[in-house]
Amino acid sequence: MASIATNQTILVVGGGISGMTAALEAAECGRQVILVERNTSLGGRTAQLYRYFPKMCHPTCGLEINLRRMKANRNLKVLTLAEIRSVSGKRGDYTVKIRLSPRYVNEKCTACGECARAVETEIPNPHDYGLGKIKAAYLPHAMAYPLRYVIDPSIIATEDGQRAKKACKYDAVDLEMKEELVEMKFGSVIWATGWKPYDASKIQPYGYDRYDNVITSIEFERLADPHGPTGGKLLRPSDGAEAKNIAFIQCAGSRDENHLRHCSRICCMASLKQSQYVSEKGESKSTIYYIDIRAIDRFEDFYRKVQEDPQVSFVKSKVANIQLDEKTGELILKGVDTEGYHRYEARHDLVVLAIGMEPESLGIPLPEDIITDSSGFMEGSKDLGQFGAGAASSPLDVNRSAQSATAAALRAIQSIYRTSSAEGGQ
Amino acid sequence: MMSEMKTAAYLCSGCGLGDKLDMASLSKVAQKAGKMAIVREHPFLCSEEGVKLIHDEIEKESVTHAVIAACSRRSKTEAFSFPETALSRVNLREGVIWVVAEGHEEIRQEMAEDYVRMGCAEVKKMKLPRGNPESGKEKNILVVGGGLSGLTSALEAAETGYKVVLVEKETRLGGWASKIWKRVPFSSPYNDPQNTGILELISKVSAHKNIEIHVNSAILETSGAPGKFVVRIGKAEGTETEVKIGAIIQATGFSSYDISKLPELGGGLPHVVDQAGLEQLAIKAEGKPIAREDGKPIRSVAFVQCAGQRDESHLPYCSGHCCATSIKQAMYFKDAHPEVDTVIIYTDLRTPGMGEDFYRSAQEKGVIFTKGKVSSVENAGEGCRLKFRDLILDEESTIEADLVVLATGQVPNSGVNIELPEERNQVSVLNLSYRQGKDMPQLKYGFMDSHFICFPYETRRTGIYAAGPVRRPMDMLQATEDATGAALKAIQAVENASLGRAAHPRSGDLSFPTVRLEGCTQCKRCTVECPFGAIDEDEKRFPLFNESRCRRCGTCMGACPVRVISFENYSIDTVGSQIKAVDMPDEFSEKPRILILACENDAYPALDMAGMKNRCYSAFARIIPVRCLGSVNTIWITDALNSGYDGVMMMGCKHGDNYQCHFVKGSELANYRMGKMDDTLKQLGLETERVTTVEVAITDHEKVAAFINDYAETIRIIGMSPMKGFG
Asked: Which of A207, A252, B330, B396 gets the most CB atoms within 10 Å of its CB?
């Protein structure tokens, strides 16, 4: 494996939309790229979204195109279940240690699904943020790449593990698979490690950790998705009843010095989009509690359209707190509508927190050389050989992430070019 | 170049195929009906050993055309990759055994056999694509516009080793960025305005050995294609230069919305300026307290946000940068003289990301933010009076200020709108010699943005990219990022063009369209309908294909009434022969045949996923993936009907404003063409239901199955086609 990468190779860390874009854009310029993804398949958080704003189109549509580009490109290698352990060296000559976790399924897998049928254990479905269950031998999702099953480590030493192995006619289940540590050389590194939702339970007054019917915006995406745990029905978690009066609370964690200093940029548009999921369900109503609606540039058109939707109302207010009506399971939102200064006490059957983005890299040991801003977003390395891309570099939406990743791909190519032309000149 | 055709079919019996299908009979079909020279069956074809078998036979038996009858073409793509062999994938797993309900063994087998026949028929009509022989090797990049975006694109490409020609219409480089005092910060800490850095950027670009600069110049003509553009550059004084170019970046920026169109907000009054006007005053002040044009010191200043923006009678959109720009400008006052009253009147304050720190810093500096909507600005005493609705207090309010700054929006400098009839006041930027018009198609409000969320750089002119505020409204940091990304796309375009390969979304595709001119009737449908303006007309009004501009969608092939356009591996014949290969039961069999032409980008994956999720659909369906519904030629449909198919269904992407077609116009054109199908059906004496078009998204795995089943039911009700036996 080590031999395939050289100091001309670009390492892309993270296989979400940004990492895939950076990797593909560089590879389609004829450069050698290795894309490393920590999870079992590519797509990242976008693969867990139901639809995109403002077109209301499906993320898997772009994913399909990107996967096709990937399958056709011999300059690009993908490693999944792979995590960066360390990066040392300098621009043009990085040594990277990568940990490969066992999938317990090798490349012989045909994705026939026999192992999943044989296994009895169910685990919380990671693709649905644990909202639903999946067999412990599973295909991460229908668009998973690589199209290969995964055996959950929890069943390896159990009878279920043996059942999976026995069910496979192709010798693809390998329960002996071990973790590996590989070392490779790279010329440049693109960090496209993406974002994670801010821990909603830290926003105490909203009771995410106390009330079943307070959920985050990313969980709401799974509820709306026909491939998701409720088959696309907006069911409230406490009792499975259909939610018909839904509150969206903006800036949940964002624009708040006690939580996230920055504005997460996507949340206004995400809630506007999600209000449309609600409106599509017939009579259901949405109320959006906001400080400023940040529908930047042509997104304004979408905002205007939602403002015209009689099923959606807007309240300019930072919700003060949420209480539970134990009898009905309803949530009571209290606060002051700052347009005219009216107090309100509003009842909703489901509350969606438009949760802020923080860099996923906060949990990853980054090379010392990397510069980050006050929220931890990456600006790149001092030696100009490593670059942030997409939501790792700033809270960005998908379109801007792809733009940023394309720019990062150029920077990586340029960095390698500079190093090699400097060497050539010696 | 290609040796004699040698065919082979490889049938996999793994993944339950052998249990559910009669493999021996499939082999016989491949041999007899399919006329395959070699037929092999393997229990696990995608295994190392199975793949080796195919490789070896390609080597030793000189197999040139292979059929792989196994899983979907979307599965095991890398394993079954034989670049030197024409290949047809027959989808027996996702497309047959996973979608046909138990208890339908006979019709399931018939379905599988038909698919094998179709694969064999297709492959024999395929040629191995050899790449565009007309490819251009020119790798220089033209950047039009010498503002921040253009300079950034030029420098980034040059620093990556590419030669750049930079054209600027003004006498000096720098654009708007050189006409402002400071910029909003690009990096932390986000507390204060930063130097623009434009002078350093200009000097780097000016000194760069890879960059050739033409100021005071405009593009007189752009002809050719990626890898071989020929661009004539004219200087204002009349001299002309011709350059050969590989790819183009249009970074022509924006103009500020004309404040004289905003008289109600005081546009035209002496103490009312736009943001650019304020920058002029700030440059004059050089960091000292800013004075008015008339020399009077300014003690109070009011900023009116969204002036003529987010307003359907002016600019309906938000320009994105203006909130932070007004904050920066308020800081000019506060930093020089904290006693100056600065108020920003806004409806939604929009400072995304770290802009929030900048906003906070302004609050700390004493800038006042008022949520309100300004209704009028008038002269009053020495300054102006603003009337506004205070949205917090919910009442009308008035303030006075020595100076009013209107945050007007960005109007893109995009050149000619080719969708409109020629207008005199529009000056073209690129002067393309393309049949479809002089400039790039615009998306909305004049911006040349991509319509695709996932692919922000996709324009409808191959090898020409828009960067900066001409693409979409943006601030300076975004413009820098955007210009850097555009430099990559331009580099990618020249590299791909030099290899004769397609650009996005069929990147790497080596097939290219060829036209048999002797059959052409000069109807111009191909030249008009190509979504990418790839086809011109020659002096004799024959279509002139510019292969390097082509995205290989096949819309021209679908458009051509005389069927003279084809690709090596995708043609009227590759699809037509599949349609004809299906074994047609007679009208008493009660076994209808439904042809489904499915867009390979969204509908076909949705059909695969229907299989993966065991959503069963009618075994009477015969599905053929197409590059885009736009490539569907009506001859396929009439041939199908004539040969006895009972129904034809087209599955394509959403069209209309929020279209999802990857080739922009394909599904819309297909819909339009099919709208005319009713007459044909009537002529044939057939019911109009025999042809139908449905919109499918990639997630619609449930819907696709339902569509097919409902359609099968419709066909059952209207009965079998009377055309059987005449085909």
From this structure: A252
